[in-house]
Write a structure and sequence with these properties.
It is built from 3 helices and 3 strands. It is of the alpha/beta class and about 110 residues long. It has one domain: Transcription Regulator spoIIAA. The chain has a 3-stranded parallel beta sheet with strand order 1-2-3.
Length: about 110
């Protein structure tokens, strides 16, 4: 995993699995973004493989941080499994996803 800059780029593209192990790394690295109040505005999830509930928790946490900064993050191309978990837990709206929004087919 590469070291992330203190200030987040405007758009980030997540790649690979996003399960508890990877989420813990992303969370730790993203704490600097929160301290600097510099969060990404767009997160592309098209390259994400396997996910679990920790992926949803990470995205919700990032969104909460963004809202405390007076903005919101747009999450694009969620994997089907992540979209299903978000729908079942009523978290889709918090991430800006409608229930009929297509999920990434990758």
């Amino acid at each position: 995993m590469t070291k992330r800059p203190e200030h987040a780029p405007r758009t980030i593209a997540l790649r690979g699995d996003l399960t508890a192990r990877e989420v813990s790394r992303w969370y730790a690295d993203s704490l600097a973004w929160r301290r600097a109040e510099s969060l990404p505005l767009t997160v592309d999830l098209a390259g994400v493989g396997r996910t679990d509930s920790s992926a949803l928790a990470l995205l919700l946490e990032w969104q909460a941080w963004a809202r405390t900064c007076g903005t919101a993050i747009e999450f694009h191309n969620p994997p089907a499994a992540l979209k299903t978990v978000a729908n079942l837990s009523a978290a889709s709206a918090l991430l800006g996803w409608s229930e009929d929004m297509p999920a990434s087919q990758e």
